[in-house]
């Protein structure tokens, strides 16, 4: 297969591989790229964060830093804290992105992450409340793509989960006499992570063929994409399908089954890394 046909007719070039049930990068249709995660202070670039993680999915590289701050709860949710996710796609991560305010793709990714947090109940906002109506934690979750080669959503959800599992919040009390908050930095507690959502994305080729963990090139050539988010109980937290080819019920069920298997792999990877950085 000449490189010329890849440039002139990329779709035909891909189809010739897909007929053989493989992809130009050597992967099978259902095969994920090599996935790695680094958690915590090994990331010298964001030492100011209260929790951090770096995830690589093939060439796609995403970093997540979580910063915790104290604030007054909203009047209509006196017993809840806040989680504020933000996905950034800086111009340095790929030629397709421009400097300036967040583009459509970054905004859609931020909204997707907010929906995953809400639907999966990975963190219950009541757990972030310190004193009802007076004081709560705000978790600012900044997810920055350092290198973009497709499948941003899987990498972002993974980085978010890993970073949140790394967060240790100081103990905070309110002094009854003065009404002021007192922070004890010596006594820190991990976040209460109730669910572990994992995203699994597929590209749809020619309306029928599903390939897992698409690269940027595969996303551009696909007739649609779908992202399935499941938790450790195999519960479906979210199905994200931004337009494109419709999927039959059977195809969707196939995606969900594969997503449940992928969840086990990702969870095992996070647990292994956390165990390796936990002081004995």
UniProtKB/TrEMBL annotation:
Residues 31-170, 197-260 form the Exoribonuclease phosphorolytic domain. Transmembrane segments: none annotated. It comes from the Eukaryota. Keywords: Acetylation, Cytoplasm, Exosome, Nucleus, RNA-binding, rRNA processing. One of its GO terms (molecular function) is mRNA 3'-UTR AU-rich region binding. GO terms for biological process: exonucleolytic trimming to generate mature 3'-end of 5.8S rRNA from tricistronic rRNA transcript (SSU-rRNA, 5.8S rRNA, LSU-rRNA); nuclear mRNA surveillance; nuclear polyadenylation-dependent rRNA catabolic process; rRNA catabolic process; TRAMP-dependent tRNA surveillance pathway; U1 snRNA 3'-end processing; U4 snRNA 3'-end processing; U5 snRNA 3'-end processing. The keyword RNA-binding applies. GO terms for cellular component: cytoplasmic exosome (RNase complex); nuclear exosome (RNase complex); nucleolus. Coiled coil: none annotated. It is found in: Cytoplasm; Nucleus, Nucleolus. It holds the Pfam family RNase_PH_C. CDD domains: RNase_PH_RRP43. PANTHER family: EXOSOME COMPLEX COMPONENT RRP43 (PTHR11097:SF9), EXOSOME COMPLEX EXONUCLEASE RIBOSOMAL RNA PROCESSING PROTEIN (PTHR11097). Belongs to the RNase PH family. This is Exosome complex component RRP43. The gene is Exosc8.
